[in-house]
Amino acid sequence: MVLPALVPAVFVVAGGVGAAAMQSLGLMPLVGPVRFSADAYTGQAEDLFRALGLSLAIAAVSTVIAAVFGVGTALLIVGGRWCGRILAATSAATVTIPHLIGAATVGLLLADSGVLARVLGVPPELWPSLVGGPWWLAVVAEYAWKESAFIALIVAGTLITRVARFDEAAALLGATRWMRFRFVMLPLALPALAISSTIAFVYTLGSYEVAWLLGRTYPEPLAVMALRLFNSVSLTARPEAAAAAVLTTLVSFLVVGACFWALRKTALWR
Amino acid sequence: MLVGLGAVVSLTLGACAAPAPDGARSEFADWNDVIRAAQGQTVKLWMYGGDTQGNAYIDDVLAPAVAAEGVTLERVPVTDTSDALNRVLSELQAGRTDDGTVDLVWVNGDNFRTGKEAGAWLCDWTNLMPNLALTAPDDPLLLKDFGTPVDGCEAPWNKAQFTFVYNSDVIADPPTTLAGVLAWAEAHPGRFSYPAPPDFTGSVFTREVLYSVSGGYENVPATFDQDAYDQLTPKLFERLRDLAPSLWRAGSTYPANEQELNQLYADRQIDLTMTYGPATLTDLVASGTYPPGTKVLSLEEGTVGNASFLSIPANAASSAGAMVVANVALSAGQQLAKAHPATWGQFTVLDPNELTPDDRARFDALPSSPVVPSYDVLSRSANPELAAAWVPVLDEGWRTTVLAGR
To answer: What is the mean pLDDT of residues B349-372?
Structure first.
């Protein structure tokens, strides 16, 4: 039954990853002889590690912020008052905005001579370096904003179907707001929160356009590095680009694997 | 099973790798054959899409002229020419050898060289074009493209001159040499920057500084040679590292491309900028984007000049149509229209001596701009470009020494 859906997915994923792995190992050169070698990895090991560290940091910080705001928003949506409905509508609208548009918007808003700086009347020299600054603040802000809406919708979706009964039961038994959040809402939301956070994390790790538009030229995250090398005019840089891409893929698989392993250990999985 | 299938897929892809190294040769015997084969073809021209005047020229002037010859011209905007080259290389790698999606590319320099090395361009076709006779046969800018012999693999289209631009309302007494520009930047911290190579403009700027610290372009061998690189570049990178603290944001980051740099200039965050397309300045000043005091800075030692070309990929689906487009683009009428500052203001590749007296008079009658001097003035003592092999090495050297060195 699932075969028609499985075959193209396997073809694209396995074929694409396989081709990238082969390119990174020198087995698919654009010019020159086919020769197996790990030069694309070892030759730029230092750059790869620096890029990996930066990518993980950006993804981790923006995912944590997105998760906190996402759960808060989800609770307000589930609360069901009028502000919940407004929040649900704005979250749904936010999810539909492409990251590229989001990045351009955040750039226009937060740049040195951007809209916010002009509205507040701060001259460019005094405005903090949010775009292209040393702490990647505009990049983190964009991912946190977009992904918090995504996490909010997923978590609200799971909570809304079953939370009311448990919540009312706990309230009747005399649980305070905090206790209901800690012992009812959070455990119920946890699997959905973990899965949506992992999706957000892995997406951030592999995405390139936001970091490229709002980040700085050095150091660079893995995805930006892979694209720069892929577009490089020297034909020998393609294996290095593929190496960066393969590393991103491996780390993503590890993170997804770890998430599922941890979820299986929780009681709610069953 | 997944792994097995993946391996099969990758092997099939792998089997098609490595295109022919010598490129494809045109199979047309004469121009009439080309015209006949081109009828009804649609040509996809891949070109840098960030220049609204250039886009408007293609859509409103060149496309109708080409349509009169029976060919439809479609413009495909790209952010960087290497996107088009990468598309061609990927298609060739995947075994798509005669129905490629790219028919014509606006190209020069290292993209041309890389494509030529990989056999990605169609060669030996420019001599078929009747309008090639309007160019000077011995024009050095048209015979070699950044040191790579053209060999009939691309048709000349534009000439360009790298230009520094300054705000004369702020800088009353502008520097007259590149060394002076760098000294001015150090005297005025935060008011100057340059795009990070491998951006095209940033890359030219580092080559200009290389000429300057080496005592002129004569002292830098045009063909790449590792000894010359080892001997000359320490001075270059040292100069740029010393300059960095005086740049915009103290050199802790750089604009990623010419647009970002010029945005800083438009926002009055810097007072000196640079461009390979001085033709656009007139419009930018007139529209109020650039400060009214904007002027072109002429340097005593001159600046780098080059030509850009139209190239047909070896796997182009409509190669005959692409040749017709290149020929029309090279006609006196099109080159004249393109050179008009109100249209695009791109300098012509034609030789005045090969033109009819009428056409020559029309070129002479082109209006001059209050901001930009004419090509003759701009290109006075023009410096030659270094061989394309220098470019990636210098870019990488800058990235690891100047950018990472802080």
So the answer is: 87
Q: In the structure encoding, which two tokens stand for residue B315, read together?
A: 């796997």
Chain A contact for B254 (CB, 8 A cutoff): yes
Could you tell me the residue range of the domain that residue B244 belongs to? 163-303+383-403
pLDDT at B311 over 90: yes
CB of A236 within 8 Å of a chain B CB? The answer is no
Tell me whether residue B32 is in a domain.
yes
Residues B149, B58 within the same domain: yes
Residues B396 and B269 in one domain: yes
The list of chain A residues with pLDDT below 70 reads: 267-270
> Could you tell me what percent of chain A has a pLDDT over 70?
98
B146 and B218 inside one domain: no
Instruction: Measure B9 CA to nearest chain A CA, in Å.
Output: 5
Three-state SS for A171? helix
Q: Which residue of B has its CA nearest to A11?
A: B6
pLDDT (0 to 100) of residue A269: 60
Q: Nearest-CA residue of chain B relative to A9?
A: B2
Question: Do B179 and B299 fall within a single domain?
Answer: yes
Higher per-residue confidence, B169 vs B94: B169
Alpha-carbon span A21 to A12, nearest angstrom: 14
Q: pLDDT at residue B258 above 70?
A: yes
B128-154 average pLDDT score: 91
Residue of B253, B270, B395 for testing the chain A interface, max A β-carbons within 10 Å: B253
The answer to whether the Cβ–Cβ distance between B14 and A22 falls below 8 Å is: yes
- The CATH number of A37-269 is 1.10.3720.10
Antiparallel, parallel or unpaired: β B148-149 and B144-145: antiparallel
Instruction: Give the pLDDT band of residue B18 (cuts 50, 70, 90).
Output: very low
Domain count, chain B: 2
**How distant is the Cα of B230 from the closest Cα of chain A, in angstroms?**
20
Same domain, B258 and B317: no
| Chain A residues with beta carbon closer than 8 angstroms to that of B249 | 129, 132
DSSP readout, A11-44?
HHHHHHHHHHHHHHTTSS-SSS------HHHHTT
Tell me, yes or no, whether B334 lies in a domain.
Answer: yes
Domain of B30: which CATH number? 3.40.190.10
Please classify residue A255 by burial: count the beta carbons closer than 10 Å to its beta carbon, then call 0-12 exposed, 13-18 middle and 19+ buried.
middle
Q: Do A34 and B17 touch (CB under 8 A)?
A: yes
Mean pLDDT, residues B132-140 taken together = 90
Name the minimum distance, in Å, from the CA of A1 to any CA of chain B.
18
For residues B316 and B183, membership in a common domain is answered with no
Select from B186, B158, B172 the least CA-distant residue to B278: B158
Same domain, B142 and B273: no
**Residue B13 contacts A where some CB pair is shorter than 8 Å:** yes
**Does residue B185 lie within any of the structural domains?**
yes
- For chain B, what's the residue count? 406
